[in-house]
Amino acid sequence: MSKPKIAVVIGSTRAARFADAPTEWIAKLARERGDLTVEVVDLRDFPMPFFDEVASSLWVPSSNEIAQKWQKKVEEYDGYIFVTGEYNRGPSAVLKNALDYAYTEWNRKPAAFVGYGGVGGARAIEQLRLNAVELQMAPVRTAVHIVLADYLAIKAGRKIVEFEHLNQAAHDMLNQLSWFAHALKAARDADAETADVAAA
């Protein structure tokens, strides 16, 4: 079986976003493992309008061309790491919008989270876990939480890799993500093989 392909999704499009630093760090750690293929996906490359379709793409194909491009991109992956800040106790609107613009493409794949903010993005991640379950993803237990003290130190010039508690959380999270990515990929592949046999 080929290595699962994981997307690290940058959940902010702000010009002054902090998300690039944790994205670069977690993508590097994931690549160093050797058991995952990792690609960074930037929502800036998919400037979708706020959701304005007739219904979810589960029921009606999306008419927006960028949304269609986004759905094809999401479908490429076997799992996701969402990098998210926290805005008024929730994730960014652009990330929630991106989740809403796909459905079946997310199904039966694991989701992991790297959060930053006053409480390490914990409240945003808690909401994203619920969204992930509704989209039939399997959110892993451990997340990375870059709290305000870490955030300020990083903004002042320290590297994320210098924070041992963040490295340990990332290690645990990636172990869980890898396990679920391999297991669910095998299950999806088996389902596809069964469907092919039935259709023959």
Automatic annotation (TrEMBL):
Residues 4-145 form the NADPH-dependent FMN reductase-like domain. InterPro entries: Flavoprotein-like_sf, FMN_Rdtase-like_dom, NAD(P)H-dep_reductase. GO terms for cellular component: cytosol. One of its GO terms (molecular function) is oxidoreductase activity. It holds the Pfam family FMN_red. This is FMN reductase.
